[in-house]
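Problem: given the chain below (161 residues), write out its structure.
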Amino acid sequence: MGSPPDDTRKAAARPLLAAAELEAAVGYWLRLAQQRDLKAFGDCFAGTGVSQLGYAILLVLEANPGCRAAELGEAVRVRQPNLGEPLDVLIGLGLVSRAPDPRDRRAQVLALSDAGRVRLGELKAAHAGLIGGYREVLGAEGYEQLIALLRRFTRRGAEQP
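Solution.
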């Protein structure tokens, strides 16, 4: 069996060029950006046991102590059934407490524990470093523009294209 023809070797040696439609696809770039962010976040928060969703939950609970799971889910845009596992992790880490709702003993309210407040301070400092890296890559103005565009694109009630 001989070696492949020269044309095949040349085609394999050159990088594939993306189709114009792919280059203009918002979902393609959002997926690549999310992959990069997930990796950077994972590296930044390695060993903490706190995921991106867990961090968002901690931030919302800091601003809204005593909220119910349904309210929390709405704030972080996660359906309540999908909130159970990340909440259990945070409760298991001792960062979040769950207690009966004084207005309705059948319901439960969530809050940061004392350890959760301390840990969140540490996580915020680490996250600020991560954001600082993004600002270096994009420039401060570019970063702010990106966040503004993503907010606009994902705004609740916004018309679908």
